[in-house]
Amino acid sequence: MRHSLLLASTALLMSVPALAEEGMWLPGQTPALGDKLKAAGLELSPADLGNLKAVPLNAIVSLGGCSASFVSPEGLVATNHHCVYGSIQYNSKPGQDYLTDGFLAKTYGDELPAAPGSRIYVIEDLRDVTAVMNKGITTKLSGLDRYNRLEANRKALIAECEKQANRRCDVRPYFGGQTYFLQQQLEIKDVRLVYAPAGGIGNFGGETDNWQWPRHTGDFGFYRAYVAPDGSSVPYAKENVPYKPKSWLKIADKPLREGDFVMVAGFPGVTQRHWTAAEVRHNFEQVYAIDQQLRADYSAAIEKAVKGNKDAEIKYASILKGSDNYKKKLLGEIAGADAIDLLGRKDKADADFRAWVAADPARRKMYGQALTDLDALVAESNQARVDNLRLATINRAQLLSAAQLLYRWAKEREKPDAQREPGFQDRDRLSMRERLTQVERRYDAGVDRVLFQQALGEYAKVAADKRNAPLEAKIAELGMDRLYADTRLGVTADRLGWMDKPAAEFEASSDPFIQLAVAAYPGQKADEEKAKERAGRLQAARSFAFSSSAFCPG
User: Fold this and answer.
1) Cβ atoms of 103 and 46 closer than 8 Å
2) Cα(164)–Cα(225) distance, rounded to whole angstroms?
């Protein structure tokens, strides 16, 4: 299991055989680590590692879910094979199987548009906005009011940041919501596939795992970033030109030697280092076990449904790889936790902190109630996580997911932009369209039906009061045959055509998947409000409890 002090932002990981340091750090923390970095063999100035506008960090980019780096003055980007896999799949079809054969663009003109929604993000700024995020936050607020106030503050910060052209901004919580950072990035929307090795190299031996070392695969691929001739970030157009980055990394011409300094700069996912012992134990003993099984069953269902159908095999290759990859990650984390007695260590750290609080009346007064509240909320949240794993499987039905997305888009458009839910504002329109477009190369009606029926079986395992009764009733009323025979959502033009229709047209529609989305909406909104209330209360308890650095010892 990877430990860190970081939530979804740039990090530095130092590891050498003689002096290995476990953890992740924000760029701004590197000057304070200068002595350790120098002792480990760093020859650069530690201060330079905290500068997002200078080499080497300004050559490191995010793909939205993967780290990558510029490696040429012409916008060439190197990343992992699995990070370009979705674009390889999207551009493949029977008779043009880049998944198996690989792909090489010999000229700029041969480069292929990446899968819809692909992005290259160049980070420009990372600043503490905790004071602004906490504006209007008081202990008197309910959980829901606290959540909504934090969300309003977050949207205001993002809106101000995105007044700059071509920028994509976000505000993310750190240390259980005690601290917030605004992340500003240049968003490059025209991304093209340049090179991907053949499947036998990129996925040598058929190994699904990219989480463990050593590995013996050609796990790499290349994109290129493009912009308009005037340098602005625009979607794909033939007249666009390669982006010229301010810096790029050079490929090493000498192998590593024992004891060499190694640093990794990138955009890791999330860390659960701040979780309580109860959360960690529940995660490993219940959530991971259920999640791993759900993914194993999902993968098996896909493999069986696409067998003998080359077009369907290609369409579901990226989905299958993602499922298998994450399943292997879960198994690896479980094995890793067992190997280091993570649960025992976490229990001890948690007990030590609670003993520290109990030993002093002032600390009991300051942290006691927050800990009591946090324990109760953790128990509530743990059960919700298990339920949500099974409930979420229903979204594997791609036309149902598309219908729900479209109807929600129509409902949110009834509000002023600043009051819409994240993901449904004007800033999200292009990504929404691209997400809906992706379906055309990742959907087969026969396969989708099989996966939908499997998901309904998992959905039914959740207690009846947690399920969406109107949705279930509508599915039973319509039946599977009608759902897939009478819908037009499988046609891209028809699907995209719903983006500008008002909610009233959805409510009057005879399309069966649209009817499902309309039936499900009230229950989904009610569940969402409950989740927000819980999240607000959890943030209050966790952030206050974490105001003591002793909560996360070691």
Assistant:
1) no
2) 20
Residue 332 · residue 212 · CB < 8 Å: yes
For the entire predicted model, the pTM comes to 0.90
Please list, in sequence order, all residues whose beta carbon lies within 8 angstroms of the beta carbon of residue 440, skipping any fewer than 6 positions away: 492
Backbone angles phi, psi at 122, to 5 degrees: -105, 110
- Backbone phi, then psi, for 266, in 5-degree steps? -175, -165
Task: Take residue 292 and report the two structure tokens written for it.
Answer: 């791993």
> 3-state DSSP call for residue 88?
helix
Which backbone phi and psi does 14 adopt, to 5 degrees? -105, 130
Q: What is the pLDDT of residue 273?
A: 77
Mean pLDDT by runs of 10 across the 554 residues of the chain is 28 36 75 87 84 90 95 97 96 96 97 98 95 95 96 97 96 86 96 96 75 79 98 96 96 86 79 86 94 96 97 96 89 90 94 93 89 90 92 96 98 97 96 96 97 97 96 97 97 97 98 98 97 92 65 40
Residues contacting 341, CB < 8 A, separation 6+: none
Using CA atoms, how far residue 169 sits from 121, 150, 165, 461, 497, in Å, is 10, 16, 11, 39, 29
Alpha-carbon gap, residue 241 to 231, rounded angstroms: 8
Compute the distance between CA of residue 164 and CA of residue 299 in angstroms, rounded to an integer.
43
Number of helices and strands in the chain (H, E): 19, 13
DSSP conformation letters of 467-522: S-HHHHHHHHHHHHHHHHHS--TTSHHHHHHGGG--HHHHHT---HHHHHHHHHHH
Helix (H, G, I), strand (E, B) or coil at 7: coil
Strand partners, 112: 193
- Map residue 115 onto helix, strand or coil: coil
